[in-house]
């Protein structure tokens, strides 16, 4: 949970580097919270089939979109890539797969252009 909270506290920092553990722990906890809120929306009656999400899940998604982008940019920095690579997600089918591969890759050992190693 500390990894998740540290990303939320560091929501406006798009510089520096993020370890794989920081990125994936945030992704895991974020996914679990989204699933729980989706179930809560269903039971409360605020789930919309047309939109594919409910009120609670939508509000939560709006609240964590900036921290999620920030940690993704820092993760790309750890692999030696510019944060602008996040826009590759806009390429259908292939873009998200490429970004997933970058997120899984080991970070550059030692300092790089984006700062010292977070390990």
What does this structure look like?
- With 119 residues, the protein is mainly alpha-helical.
- It has one domain.
- 57% of the residues lie in helices and 3% in strands.
- It has helices spanning 2-9, 20-44, 55-78, 94-104, and strands spanning 47-48, 53-54.
- It has a two-stranded antiparallel ribbon.
- The chain is elongated and about 50 Å long.
- The two termini are 19 Å apart.
Compile the SSE list and pairings.
Elements: H1 2-9, H2 20-44, E1 47-48, E2 53-54, H3 55-78, H4 94-104
Helix pairs in contact: 1-2, 2-3
Helix and strand sequence: HHEEHH
Summed up, the helix count is 4
The proportion of strand residues reads under 5%
What would you report as the Rg, rounded to the nearest angstrom?
A: 16 Å
pLDDT < 50 runs, ≥5 residues? none
Helical content band: 55-70%
Shape: elongated
Give the biggest beta sheet. Answer: 2 strands, antiparallel
End-to-end gap: 19 Å
Q: What is the number of E strands?
A: 2
Rounded mean pLDDT is: 90
Task: Looking at this protein, list some descriptive labels.
single chain; 119 residues; mainly alpha; two-stranded antiparallel sheet; 2 strands; 3% strand
